[in-house]
Amino acid sequence: xDNLIISADDYGYAPxxxxxxxxxxxxxxxxxxxxxxxxxxxxxxxxxxxxxxLGIHLELARGSSRxxxxxxxxxxxxxxxxxPAFLDGHHHCHAAPGxxxxxxxxxxxxxxIARSVDGSHRRLLRRLGVPTPELLVGRLREDEPAMPPExxxxxxxxxxxxxxxxxxxxxxxxxxxxxxxxxxAGREQDLRLLLDLLDAGPLRSxxxxxxxxxxx
Length: 216
Known about the structure:
By secondary structure, the protein is α/β, with parallel strands linked by helices. The protein contains nine helices and seven strands, in the order βαβαβαβαβαβαβααα. The chain has helices at 15-27, 44-50, 66-80, 100-109, 119-127, 149-156, 184-196, 201-204, 210-214, and strands at residues 3-11, 32-35, 53-58, 86-89, 113-114, 135-137, 165-170.
């Protein structure tokens, strides 16, 4: 593993989740934060003050068009005063059949790094000239291990690390059952794990941002 990018998703989802992400960012427990821009006003100032790398977390329903993604990019720049450093999608919507190529082309035109969710998506992005990590790890469900096996092996020295740039997708936050999120309790688990790992030498020495690891 050449570099590890710890990316916190879902800033802008709910205030309790945002507070957990801010806590992780202020502690230096994450390298990047991806922001939702369509759920109402966001506390951009607090996030900018952390100095963490910022990207866009697209929300695209079935049948969404390029115009929907373009609008969210414009809203990001309006709220943050800068373009995003990278692009990904809620529930991997940016990689869905029928729109993955459109979003990949959009990323290429805006010179954005993009998250790839599997080998096929990675090959598509690279054909379009879009930089993307070699591997994505992390969970989408609370019944999966909070610590990815690929990183656990690095911590214990029991297995060879994955090659290239690895992105670890995390969802730190504080619980808020009113959101209806199926990943509500998992956010507290992710936050505690990230804070516990702050002094983990094998991982800390690999930490990077999208721009540092992947920008041409």
